[in-house]
Write a structure and sequence with these properties.
Elements (H helix, E strand, L loop, with lengths): L1 E4 L6 H13 L5 E4 L9 H10 L4 E6 L1 H9 L9 H17 L4 E5 L9 H13 L6 E6 L8 H6 L4 E5 L3 H11 L5 E5 L7 H14 L3 E5 L2 H11 L8
Parallel strand pairs: 1-8, 2-3, 3-4, 4-5, 5-6, 6-7, 7-8
Length: 238
């Protein structure tokens, strides 16, 4: 089982302290969240600083589909800009790979909403193209349940899929049935519900996925505590 943290950006003054908190809690990586537009000013500098301090780093960047949608309010004419935008992503991912980064998280909240067919095709095109770099990619869907685009998200050529655990009993069965055998599943835990029922459900998922089950939370000690309750504390930094 692998543990990592997701959540909002912090100020530069808080970032170093947060890295140490994540490492102390057994997180597999410290996170560095991008801001703005590609090439995401200061991201490479902050990644270099974290790696120089001895941390493994997972950059978190907006996914190309959601970024383009947010810039244009979903105007289909904006899809003409997609390949130019992907050029920026290619350059960034290549630079991160040269820095020794292994994993990058791509946040796609737009996948939690219905998509017109032209945007679905654009999403598939984007992630097929982003295979050009050797970086491993985690696709994170936030801001709602993954329902309409579940099949799309499960089948995109990424190495891990992250979803918010909003309705465990219904969502887990569906996702597990659609998840390819090579792909890890990262579950963002609810902030206020680490109940015995949830622990039992996650134990069942762990028995099925083994090390392909990852846990994420906004507070690192929450997820580390749950790993202990699941009986896998010796593997939290796998």
């Amino acid at each position: 089982m692998l543990l990592h943290q997701t959540g909002p950006n912090t100020s530069p003054a808080q970032e170093s302290d947060r890295w140490h908190q994540q490492a102390d809690a057994g997180m597999a990586w410290v996170s560095v969240a991008a801001e703005g537009m590609p090439p995401f000013d200061s991201l490479l500098e902050r990644v270099a600083r974290a790696r120089a301090a001895g941390f493994n780093v997972k950059p978190i960047i907006p996914g190309p589909l959601s970024l383009l949608w947010s810039m244009t309010d979903g105007d289909e004419a904006a899809l003409e800009q997609l390949d130019g935008l992907l050029d920026g992503y290619d350059s960034l991912l290549l630079a991160l790979g040269k820095q020794g980064v292994e994993w990058v998280e791509l946040d796609e909240p737009q996948l939690a909403r219905p998509l017109a067919p032209v945007w679905t095709a654009a999403c598939e095109h984007s992630y097929n193209r982003l295979q050009r770099t050797a970086l491993k990619r985690l696709l994170a869907v936030s801001g709602g349940a993954l329902v309409d685009n579940l099949g799309l998200a499960c089948n995109l050529p990424v190495d891990a899929l992250q979803i918010e655990l909003r309705d465990p009993e219904r969502v887990l069965v569906t996702v597990l049935d659609r998840l390819p055998a090579y792909k890890a599943l990262s579950l963002v835990l609810p902030a206020s519900d680490l109940s015995a029922e949830l622990v039992a459900q996650l134990q069942g998922v762990y028995q099925r996925l083994g090390p392909r089950l990852w846990l994420a939370a906004t507070a690192p000690h929450d997820v580390a505590d749950l790993a202990v309750r699941l009986g896998n504390s010796s593997r939290i930094a796998a």
